[in-house]
Design a protein that fits this description.
By secondary structure, this protein is an alpha/beta fold. It contains 7 helices and 5 strands; from the N terminus they run E-H-E-H-H-E-H-E-H-H-E-H.
Length: 178
């Protein structure tokens, strides 16, 4: 799993700390000489998924595109970190079924804390009905039932969470560090 095919899929509410954790983990992998890439949900929406909305169908299409790119990268020995809300279980199940080496990382953070951290003001806009289909408020976030890893960004700092992820991956692969 560590030589190729590893896809760490960070899921959680907006503001939970998915991208912050993934970026720090990316730096750690690269510092260790590993080939790694980050596919950030916000960046994907402004590039390969530009024009897609937030309907259930558009969200699913967005995930399918991210899965496709993840598959291409991972089969070439690149560790892929995906930071995308991925609100529905069927989306995460799809990613798991399509991606050998899929590791679901649930970034658990209470909604109130995510709102407090919101530098873009998205939660405030959503609460004023300016953003329809906003995950966690006007649209569902279906909690992962069996994530491979859970990190709690309100309880631990980013370095501790990254260390926990690396240690858990090593434990799952007989001590081999990614």
């Amino acid at each position: 799993m560590l030589e190729n095919g590893l896809v760490l899929w960070f899921t959680g509410l907006s503001g939970a700390g998915k991208t912050t954790t993934a970026r720090t983990l990316l730096e750690s992998f690269r510092a260790a000489g590993r080939k790694a890439e980050l596919l950030d949900g916000d960046e994907m929406r402004t590039t390969i998924s530009k024009g897609l909305g937030f309907s259930h169908e558009d969200r699913m299409e967005n995930i399918k595109r991210i899965v496709y790119i993840s598959k291409l990268l991972s089969r070439n020995g690149i560790i892929v970190l995906v930071s995308a809300i991925t609100p529905y279980r069927e989306m995460r199940d799809y990613a798991r079924s399509e991606l050998p080496g899929y590791v679901e990382v649930f970034v658990d953070c209470p909604l109130e804390e995510c709102e407090r951290r919101d530098v873009k003001g998205l939660y405030a806009k959503a609460r004023q009905s300016q953003l329809p289909h906003f995950t966690g408020l006007s649209d569902a976030y279906e909690m992962p039932e069996h994530p491979d890893l859970v990190i709690r960004t309100m309880e631990a700092d980013v370095q501790s969470n990254v260390a926990a992820i690396i240690n858990e991956l090593a434990a799952k692969t007989g001590g081999k560090r990614p």
